[in-house]
């Protein structure tokens, strides 16, 4: 056995995906999460869990934003049709 065993590095994009998803961005963590998962598969780096968490939070944020936009459009459309 070697006296020094190198630990696999953590994928930087998986960290950035997690951080940007926590900050409430939606599209950025989704893109970075998918890219980091592909890199992790290819290179064997660590960080898969962070990438997946970033993806989940990113997709949930995107869904939340789409729901808010749909509600806002419905409210403004109904006010516009009532003539107020």
Tally of contiguous helical segments: 3
Oligomer: single chain
Question: Which spans have pLDDT < 50 for at least 5 consecutive residues?
Answer: none
What kind of sheet is the major sheet?
none
Count every beta strand, where a strand is a DSSP E run of 2 or more residues.
0
Shape from CA axes?
rod-shaped
The arrangement of helices and strands along the chain is HHH
First-last Cα distance: 79 Å
Provide the structure class.
mainly alpha
Cα-atom Rg, whole angstroms? 20 Å
- Quote the average pLDDT: 92
Sheet-strand content, in percent, reads: under 5%
Helix content, binned percent: over 70%
SSE topology sketch:
Blueprint: H1 12-22, H2 27-43, H3 48-82
Helix pairs in contact: 1-2, 1-3, 2-3
Give me some keywords for this one.
mainly alpha, single chain
Descriptive account of the structure:
With 84 residues, the protein is an all-alpha fold. 75% of the residues lie in helices and 0% in strands. It is rod-shaped and about 75 Å long. The model has no long low-confidence stretch (mean pLDDT 92).
């Amino acid at each position: 056995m070697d006296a020094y065993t190198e630990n696999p590095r953590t994928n930087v994009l998986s960290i950035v995906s997690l951080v940007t998803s926590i900050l409430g961005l939606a599209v950025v963590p989704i893109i970075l999460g998918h890219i980091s998962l592909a890199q992790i598969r290819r290179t064997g780096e660590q960080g898969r869990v962070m990438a997946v968490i970033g993806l989940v939070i990113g997709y949930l944020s995107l869904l939340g934003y789409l729901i808010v936009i749909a509600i806002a459009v419905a409210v403004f459309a109904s006010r516009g049709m009532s003539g107020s």
